[in-house]
Amino acid sequence: MSDSKNKTESASREQDGLSDSINPRGLERLKNRRKKLTVDDYVEGIREGNRTILSRAITLIESSRSKHREQAEEIIEECLPHTGNSIRVGITGVPGVGKSTFIEMLGNHIIDKKQRKLAVLAIDPSSTKTKGSILGDKTRMETLANNEHAYIRPSPTAGSLGGVARKTRETIYLCEAAGYDTIFIETVGVGQSETAVHSMVDFFLLLMLAGAGDELQGIKRGIMEMADAIAINKIDSSDPIQVKQAVREYKNALHLYPEPESGWGPQVTTCSATTGKGIEEIWEMIEEYISQTKENGFFRDKRNRQSRNWMYETIQNRLSDEFYSDSRVKQMLERVEQNVLNGEISPFKAANILLDQFRQV
Ligand code: GDP
Hints:
Number of domains: 3
CATH class of the largest domain: Alpha Beta
Order of helices and strands: HHHHHEHEHEHEHEHHEHEHHHH
Helix content: 55-70%
Bound molecules: guanosine-5'-diphosphate
CATH architecture of the largest domain: 3-Layer(aba) Sandwich
CATH superfamily of the largest domain: P-loop containing nucleotide triphosphate hydrolases
Low-confidence stretches: 1-22, 129-138
Number of strands: 7
């Protein structure tokens, strides 16, 4: 397409947008879009696979306003009977390893060849920092973003990892209720976010590169231990000898871990997210894992355990939220903290003083 045609088309699209916003019908549509929805409206819209409504419901989940939270909780409860029927896959690896390219390639494969519906969520607790959301970049996963069978939601931008994890879990439920039967959760390979992702997925995939030491790749041993598979990416542009060596090394490293409860021995495989080599095989491996663990009961057990942990985590988070938002606690916190710093009272006594304040009705 010529440049000038491109320009004319985009100009006319802009024109459309402009006329839309000033003609009365456009305004009416705009108003409808922002119409206040009831819980039933939300649930119905989600169940029909209406993405605008799904996105708005997720925004409620992400909101810090208690009214929104209450409504979000009701929506989640209503959606609950329609959840759980999906494959949840966690994908991690250091920035630059090729996660988004991989997700795009694998995502398009399973949509086109396996008729799956895919939701891609992200956990990136760093995204509040101005220095940049590693995962929030809009140009990523462009073809998936334009695919009607895919839904991409960037990481919630609010605060602590615990908060981000809760929102992501709730978002999984809504996406499942909206008919997405495959959920990818992407995370950056630094810090604690992998543990959070591991606690909400069925299969955990670690992307690595050949020829870069573990230290260089910033992958902690504990993360390797959580992996159900390691895929060495970018084999199209890597030295084949280094690829072979990396496969051998990772296989050896994984063998050192105790036999996993799942009965599944973690795999080491290779792929190229740009050429697509090895991608199909990775999906087959995931399917095999799912059928094997469904057969031996591990799949259900793990999901049950995850649900139980979420309950305890929710209790902990709620208690802590209530504690820190209590006005008496707020008033005293700084002073008591200072007393601890000055060595005037012990940390335990300080905690007791604050907890006593909180418990006073
Ligand atoms: P992320 O930060 O882990 O999400 O990594 P990206 O998907 O953004 O990829 C980082 C860079 O590596 C981009 O320039 C990609 O085009 C490139 N890349 C990703 N996968 C491959 C691959 O399999 N082969 C080659 N040669 N380049 C790749």
